[in-house]
Amino acid sequence: MALMGQMMGVPLLISSIIRHAARYYGDTEIVSRRTEGDLHRYNYRECELRARKLAQALGALGVQPGERVGTLAWNGYRHLEIYYGVSGMGSVCHTINPRLFPEQIAYIVNHAEDGYIFFDLTFLPLVEGIAQHCPKVRGWVAMTDRAHMPEQAKVPLLCYEELIEAQDGNYAWPELDENTASSLCYTSGTTGNPKGALYSHRSTVLHSYASALPDALGCSAKDVILPVVPMFHVNAWGLPYSVPLVGAKLVFPGAKLDGASLYELFEQEGVTFSAGVPTVWLGLLQHVQANELRFSSFRRTVIGGSAVPPAMMTALRALGVEVIHAWGMTEMSPLGTSCKLLARHQDLPEEEQQKILEKQGRVIYGVDMKIVDGEGKELPWDGKAFGDLLVRGPWIIDRYFRSDQSPLVDGWFPTGDVATIDAEGYMQITDRSKDVIKSGGEWISSIDIENVAAAHPAVHMAACISVQHPKWDERPLLVVMKKPGVEVSREDLLAFFEGKVAKWWIPDDVAFVTDIPLTATGKMQKLKLREQFKDYRLPSA
After folding, report:
1. Of 105, 107, 129, 486, which residue has the fewest beta carbons closer than 10 angstroms?
2. Beta strands in 433-486 (DSSP E)
3. Identified catalytic residue from 128, 443, 474, 528
4. How confident is the model at residue 470, as a pLDDT?
5. 14-255 in CATH: which number?
6. Among this protein's residues, is 331 annotated catalytic?
7. Which fold has domain 437-532?
8. Does the annotation mark 190 as catalytic?
9. What is the mean predicted confidence (pLDDT) over 398-410?
10. In the chain, what are the domain boundaries?
11. What pLDDT score does 190 carry?
């Protein structure tokens, strides 16, 4: 019989994170740009008190343990209070992406069976449009005070600040089983209906610990951290948990995510670290470069959601900002890998270091990964063989919410990504399995093609998609959105690829567009592009 340890059985709970922040970093600031137009300041001590009052208010409204409470909100202090108040009382915080189509949002609300929906005033028209299609929602809560409540609304509304003010805060966080459901995030549903990933207190706390590690995101109490990645996008990559866990100052940008607004907030609050998808940094870089600005405190950023163009990494590094390439998924809570150099890489030439840093990186503790071929046979870690990427770990889903079937394959989650892993464990995504271009039986990485194109000075954004070919089955077509006021020809762009990729990888043609559609999370929507160009005839065809 095994000898058991004799340690306290204290459960890993989300409420313990905000309680820790309030007790040991109570005076540390939380700064939020509000939808009301002003800048709000308070601290972790006040945040924890208001989260307890919110838990009381929800209890008074009849919200039950396990019941889902939805949010349609930007990054701000009230949203943070909902994260902790809802999960802390034993209910489920369900963050909803307001950038999805209204029909998808109504589907998600109904599938989750949300009892209440909290929303920022920005989304009142959206709420009024979907309310009639969400019959199980018992109440809609406007996240503002009485002075800013809408004078007229098509649905009855509750006032967030009145709910808080009605409570005394005399509330003790309940001790829950750490495997209790805590929060719910849905995939963006680019293929079929969105699917829900239901996280637990245990998985969230473990993810928070791991993501804060030095070779992951490296969060510290000395940091000032601004999550640009929305709190409705996989819980802002876990930062609303990992930042209070280490006691760092937290800055929320609200709805203003343009380059000028972000730069102003970065400089005003002394932001040292941020996180977001490449499209956000494109806007910030353009503002900084156009106005010949510098960052006084901003020193590092984690970029994920889609591959970071090397040109963007170079531009940020020139401004003194370290880029941490990361990868993950909604189904992974989301962090899986982070790209940092090892000790033995410190003396390498900058060009060789750059090649390493362009990869998605090594797993953080808690995640295991492998690549397999079409028959499920594990492939070698040689940096050349690429196959389907599979993962497993304590913060990776076992099944989707309200689904009887598990997506796991022999205990591993199939990510849908195609990747290589080198001998040092650095993983590099070469494509999504649905985006990879299969030309004459050989695979071409659309990501590599896009990275080369993005480095051209005339290119604002580029997407590479497959187009049918009578001889090769598929060939790459480069879809390009040019920078304003800049001209470039098809021939110039194709010549730009010479010597940078294998000759047979060079796209067969270039299509210039005025706009490239993005998903609700800021990724290029290649499904729409493939539909748009499905009848495109390549010159070589």
Report:
1. 486
2. 437-439, 442-444, 459-469, 473-482
3. 443
4. 83
5. 3.40.50.12780
6. yes
7. GMP Synthetase; Chain A, domain 3 (3.30.300)
8. no
9. 96
10. 14-255, 363-432, 437-532
11. 53
